[in-house]
Design a protein that fits this description.
Strand order of the largest sheet: 1-2-3-5-4
Largest sheet: 5 strands, mixed, barrel
Number of strands: 6
Number of helices: 2
Shape: globular
Order of helices and strands: HHEEEEEE
Helix content: 10-25%
Radius of gyration: 21 Å
Strand content: 35-45%
Length: 133
């Protein structure tokens, strides 16, 4: 293969990486986005015509406590984003380090409704660094 053919193939490969969103600069862009980028307001989290999509929400933990759900321990927290409140429940957990009132949290999962309130069970979550709320 000629040198020109190799460089053309390399350019195509490198160009494909940028177009598909896998370039090295994408990591930097994601790191500089605010933590609530792409989040849905809690008041807008309800079942729609397409069922229960996976949603991402962010807010402040207002209350955190232990409960029993179906005979097993559960950590219960109330997340508030200023538009509404959402119950977040981790089943099988009594505590999670850093999950405490006043802490900022971003969580994602499928939101259910129990007793007329939105609930997020066992979400993926990210605690925001202290002092940067």
């Amino acid at each position: 293969m000629s040198t020109e053919g190799r460089s053309g193939m390399l350019r195509r490969l490198l160009g494909r990486g940028r177009e598909s969103g896998t370039g090295a600069g994408d990591d930097l862009a994601a790191a500089t986005e605010p933590p609530d980028a792409g989040c849905t307001r809690i008041r807008d989290c309800c079942e729609g015509p397409r069922g229960r999509p996976v949603l991402r929400v962010s807010g402040t933990l207002r209350a955190v406590g232990e409960r029993t759900v179906a005979g097993m321990p559960a950590l219960h927290a109330e997340l508030d984003d200023g538009t509404a409140r959402l119950d977040v429940v981790w089943l099988g957990r009594r505590t999670i380090a850093g999950v405490e009132p006043g802490r900022e949290l971003v969580a994602s999962g499928r939101i259910a409704e129990m007793h007329g309130r939105p609930v997020l069970f066992n979400p993926r979550y990210q605690l925001q660094p202290l002092g940067q709320e």
